[in-house]
């Protein structure tokens, strides 16, 4: 996927992935790749500033806990109620946008 | 090959405090987790870390992104801080409605006496260094006003919101002088710029402010006397607290001495004892002022409180011919200030001030400070009435 397109929708992608369950950075990356059949491939580092931006905005909440396989702690993120609202709002915007684009591809009904 | 430590240090170099610690922990945890997967595929521990770091991506881009999210949350423009090669461009209009508070502290640094005889003790030298501000506190306050403060290789770098230049100066202390064996106790003055205590760095606040005045391209303005407000562009900082008050006299005199030097004849002298500067600030609490100056009360035309200085010629010994001034704050149109002669004749220009001066009577110039520290510093004014509190009008 084009990097600009990915970047523009990164927050929507992250909120979507975190909606069902709490995850940490590496899991989020894998989840994104698996659920989109490898279409979303992040430079993993760029994920963290985006997560922190969402956390600062109150849309997700992070807490440190031991990594699943032990070792150094990692930060798990979960979506907050205001994050769910934000996700719904962004989904609507995206749908409206996508639908507008699709309508450009359909043959005009006026002709 | 880049080590984990190097990568994480680089990624978090524009962060500080608790946030830096948290992000370091988060990055280390995730990189190690990823490295574990490479190890399970048969790579060595070192190779695994190396591969994981590669997947994390360009560290410079990452450090910049962290800075945008955490260090300058109120700045909208992307800025480039890498090495500060291209300068510091903080372009967003950020202002703080309430002034930010910097508390000053006055602990003596753990410094050594430069004099082996102990005749001049360490505390004497260290006293000249304060007051101090905690670096972490300074960073938090400047950051919350949309700026940034970084310390790299003992150089402090401060970017104020909207300032196109960066204020930078070394906080490395001067080396103590090596005393001559068997020599006489030597009066050595040097100022400390910083010290460390309990893992925290303290910065000399006067050194800090002097450099802000010299280097900032924004208007730098000081308001008040005790715990003054310092405005650098739209950033407003209150310096000092009730518990550890900060008196602004050094800041006013630092600026005023330079401004007066531009307007008065050059009276610098080179003597066998060293250089005597042609314009000298006489602090109200110095022995010279306390024992030789006379207290006066000036009634001012302007009833609002302000900072004033009285400039005169020096009549004392080897300082004769140089210029001196004292500074005080007016209250409700009254300025109480010590002056070098019994009777003060206030004149309207520095030119009229030159000439005969004695302890009994001399010409002086009263100036009102604008508070602007890097521009139009003062205006000459006249008092309405002058009274000597020593008894003679």
What's the structural domain tally of chain A? 1
Overall pLDDT confidence of chain A:
83
Major β-sheet of chain B, in short? 6 strands, mixed
Write down the secondary-structure element order of chain A. HHEHHEEH
What spatial form of chain B do the alpha-carbon principal axes imply? elongated
**Reported CATH architecture of chain A:** Orthogonal Bundle
Which blocks of ≥5 consecutive residues of chain A have pLDDT under 50?
Answer: none
Average pLDDT taken over every residue of chain B? 75
Strand content of chain B: 25-35%
Question: How many domains of chain B?
Answer: 3
- Going by helix content, strand content and strand pairing, the class of chain A is alpha+beta
The value of Rg of chain A in angstroms is 16 Å
Distance between the termini of chain B: 81 Å
Distance between the termini of chain A: 35 Å
Distinct helical segment count of chain B = 10
Give structural attributes.
heterodimer, A: 111 residues, alpha+beta, Arc Repressor Mutant, subunit A, three-stranded antiparallel beta sheet, 5 helices, 3 strands, 14% strand, B: 393 residues, 3 domains, four-stranded mixed beta sheet, 10 helices, 22 strands, 28% helix, elongated
Structure in words:
The complex is a heterodimer of chains A (111) and B (393). Chain A has helices spanning 3-8, 10-18, 25-35, 44-56, 81-105; strands at 23-24, 60-66, 73-79. By secondary structure, chain A is of the alpha+beta class. Chain A has a 3-stranded antiparallel beta sheet. Chain A is globular, with a radius of gyration of 16 Å. The termini of chain A are far apart. Chain B is built from 10 helices and 22 strands. Chain B has helices at residues 4-11, 17-40, 45-56, 59-71, 122-127, 135-144, 205-215, 249-263, 287-292, 350-353, and strands at 100-102, 104-105, 132-134, 148-152, 155-159, 167-170, 194-197, 200-204, 220-223, 229-232, 235-239, 269-271, 274-276, 279-281, 294-299, 307-313, 323-329, 334-339, 343-346, 361-369, 378-381, 385-388. In chain B, strands 14, 16, 17, 19, 20 and 21 form a 6-stranded mixed beta sheet that branches. A 4-stranded mixed beta sheet of chain B has the order 1-11-10-9, covered by helices on one side. A 4-stranded antiparallel beta sheet of chain B has the order 2-3-8-7. The radius of gyration of chain B is 26 Å and the shape is elongated. The termini of chain B are far apart. Chain A binds chain B through residues 24-26, 43-46, 48-49, 52-53, 56, 64, 67, 69, 71-75, and chain B through 11, 22-23, 25-30, 32-34, 36, 55-59, 61-62, 65-66, 68-70, 73.
């Amino acid at each position: 996927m084009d990097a600009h397109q990915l970047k523009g929708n990164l927050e929507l992608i992250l909120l979507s992935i975190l909606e069902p369950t709490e995850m940490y950075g590496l899991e989020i990356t894998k989840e994104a790749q698996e659920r989109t059949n490898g279409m979303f491939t992040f430079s993993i580092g760029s994920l963290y500033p985006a997560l922190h931006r969402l956390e600062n905005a109150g849309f997700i909440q992070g807490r440190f806990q031991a990594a699943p396989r032990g070792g150094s702690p990692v930060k798990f993120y979960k979506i907050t109620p205001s994050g769910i609202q934000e996700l719904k709002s962004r989904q609507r915007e995206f749908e409206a946008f996508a639908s507008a684009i699709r309508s450009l591809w359909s043959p005009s009904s006026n002709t | 090959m880049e080590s984990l430590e190097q990568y994480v240090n680089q990624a978090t170099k524009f962060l500080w405090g608790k946030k830096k610690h948290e992000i370091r922990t988060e990055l280390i945890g995730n990189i190690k987790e990823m490295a574990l997967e490479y190890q399970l595929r048969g790579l060595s521990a070192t190779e695994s870390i190396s591969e994981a770091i590669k997947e994390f991506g360009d560290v410079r881009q990452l450090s910049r992104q962290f800075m945008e999210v955490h260090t300058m949350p109120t700045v909208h423009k992307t800025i480039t801080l890498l090495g500060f090669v291209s300068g510091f461009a903080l372009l967003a209009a950020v202002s703080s409605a309430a002034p930010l508070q910097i508390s000053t502290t006055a602990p003596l640094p753990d410094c050594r006496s430069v004099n082996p005889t102990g005749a001049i003790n360490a505390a004497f030298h260290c006293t000249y260094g304060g007051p101090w501000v905690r670096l972490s506190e300074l960073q938090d306050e400047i950051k919350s006003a949309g700026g940034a403060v970084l310390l790299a290789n003992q150089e402090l770098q401060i970017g104020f919101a909207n300032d196109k230049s960066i204020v930078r100066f070394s906080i490395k202390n001067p080396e103590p002088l090596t005393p001559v064996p068997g020599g006489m106790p030597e009066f050595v003055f040097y100022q400390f710029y910083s010290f460390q205590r309990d893992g925290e760095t303290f910065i000399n606040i006067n050194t800090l402010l002097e450099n802000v005045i010299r280097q900032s391209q924004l208007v730098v303005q000081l308001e008040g006397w005790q715990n003054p407000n310092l405005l650098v562009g739209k950033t407003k900082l209150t310096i000092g607290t009730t518990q550890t008050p900060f008196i602004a006299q050094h800041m006013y005199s630092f600026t005023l001495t330079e401004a007066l030097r531009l307007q008065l004849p050059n009276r610098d002298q080179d003597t066998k004892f060293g250089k005597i500067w042609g314009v000298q600030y006489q602090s109200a609490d110095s022995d010279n002022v306390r024992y030789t100056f006379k207290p006066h009360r000036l009634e001012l035309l302007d009833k609002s409180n302000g900072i004033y200085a009285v400039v005169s010629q020096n009549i004392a010994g080897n300082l004769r011919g140089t210029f001196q001034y004292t500074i005080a704050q007016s209250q409700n149109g009254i300025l109480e200030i010590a002056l070098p002669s019994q009777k003060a004749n206030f004149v309207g220009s520095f030119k009229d001030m030159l000439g005969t001066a004695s302890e009994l009577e001399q010409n002086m110039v009263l100036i009102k400070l604008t508070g602007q520290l890097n521009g139009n510093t003062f205006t000459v004014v006249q008092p309405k009435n002058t009274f000597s509190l020593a008894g003679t009008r």
